[in-house]
Predict the 3D structure of the following.
Amino acid sequence: MKFKDRIIWITGAASGIGEALAYQSVNYGARLVLSDIDETRLKEVSSRCENMKADVLYLPLDLSSRESIENAVPRALSHYGRIDVLINNGGVSQRALTWETPLEVDYRIMNINYFGAVILTKAVLPSMMEHGNASIAVTSSITGKFGFPLRSAYSASKHAVVGFFETLGIELADKNISVTVALPGRVQTNISVHALTGDGSPHGVMDPGQSSGIPAEVCARKYLDAIHKQKREVLIGGKELMMVRVRRFFPCLFFRLAGRIKPA
């Protein structure tokens, strides 16, 4: 019961890592605020958590809309009085070459993945600073450490959240608020199915690399354990995580390999 009676707000909670985080949070004794733009699936996940005897606030949210985010925060705070753990997990991926991706799609990915997390965090942060003993987390990606084919805007957004939340963590070091950046590799979710192609439509295909990744439940457990231990950064995945070290220590080898690895 690592988070017994703690209030955890999870975005992107309707599927994938977010859904798994919701169920594992219940197992750890938390009370939940669950948000996603997919209201139908969000209701299903919320109901399952309630069936697990959890206290849940169902709160639909569009991370591409500042108005949606800023309207949601007072509802969450008025319901529970505080947020102890904010997990900025919602996001969208990409499967398109840079020159086939119009700026509208770049903006959309950046608005959801980066600005959505930043706006929500800044809206919740004053309350956290007042109460203290809180945690903020963000789901980046191993492509937040290096570029990768077909993911130019996605990788850029994930680099951006690393820079923002690393800085925030340093600034909050004496405020009794920890910040954790999670960098998952390949996890068994539908992120590739919903990834945006060059025309902004869903990719609609489960990538082989995605389907062979670690289970979302394993990712969620490691993610929450890292938050509990107040780790500043956690890499989560399988053998693909070696690419982070290859990029850092053997950059020439990395660029040769990155051009040969199947991007899917």
Observations:
- The mean pLDDT is 94.
- Residues 103-131 form the longest helix (29 residues).
- The chain has one domain: 7-258.
